[in-house]
Fold this sequence. Notes:
Layout: H1 2-38, H2 46-53, H3 62-93, H4 106-120, H5 128-147, H6 154-178, H7 187-191, H8 199-218, H9 220-226, H10 230-235, H11 240-262, H12 268-280, H13 284-308, H14 317-336
Helix pairs in contact: 1-3, 1-13, 2-3, 3-8, 3-11, 3-12, 3-13, 4-5, 4-6, 4-11, 5-6, 5-11, 8-11, 12-13, 13-14
Amino acid sequence: MLKNNESEKILLRENKNKRLIIFTLLILAIASFLISNCIGSVNISVKDIVFSILGKSTSANEQIIKNIRLPRAILSVLVGTNLALSGCILQGIMHNPLADPHIIGVSSGAGLLGIIILIIFPEKIDLLPIVAFIGAMGAAMLIYALAWKRGINTVRIILAGVAVSTLLGAGISAIMVFYSDKVHGALMFMNGGLSGRSWPYVKIILPYTIFGLICCMLFSEKLNILTLGDDVARSLGLNVELSRIGFTALAAILAASAVSVAGLLGFVGLIVPHICRMILGSNHKYLFPSTAFLGAIILSLSDTVARVAFSPKEIPVGVIMALLGAPFFLYLLRKEI
């Protein structure tokens, strides 16, 4: 009896520490959001940013805040959240810490159809999120089909994902060659960036972020069960195939919505969930909120660096994420395989 009480106290203490870490990440996410708004070609005080958000600003920089800084900072938070959650889900359902929407080809599926809309059918731009989701989901299903051989294997998933990503990348390159006169508008999309993004893009991605967060928190226990393995999950009454398809669709929605506003932005979904898993463990009840907050932090700060590092020139935030993510991916690759 005493051992049981002691175990309960240890568990309660661990859960309290996890909640404290999540709260700390929330504070850091708010701080990174404010930093993103403050720093730029014109430095703006936190006071002016807060007053502008509250609608009480009398600052001369109000138009810069409302029309340029604020929507871009919100977008960096939403895109970072969506990509991080998508990566977290994919790593869970594939039992693979190397899974990431960009690496395994899910983002490339969204990107191929996104490029088709941007270059060939620009008048259909409103359909971009839906078309991107179809591309992301199709790529995910193709990867599953290629990797399946009496179950899912870590190495086969990565190899199938790289093959699918390469194939879709070739399709993107072919379209850009055939429509070279229209390629300029697609360059930022290819490299992943938030330059020139404003409130209409926030309206595009916000519903998907809210939907994704709600689904992640509601179904975190199902994903916990799914990560135990197919046989154990079935013995606990979980419909494994239906659950895996549902979570794949959710990951595709989150990745596609991010691709539709920020382009082919990689490595967020690889780095963030893995760091959170090392700190908080594999319980998705805690992993999902921590992943969302850390994704927002990393992309907000990376976008700020992309804007100011070589001012007045601006580089795509995808370049910063590649510099961070490529070494991290190689480290995981050596560790896992």
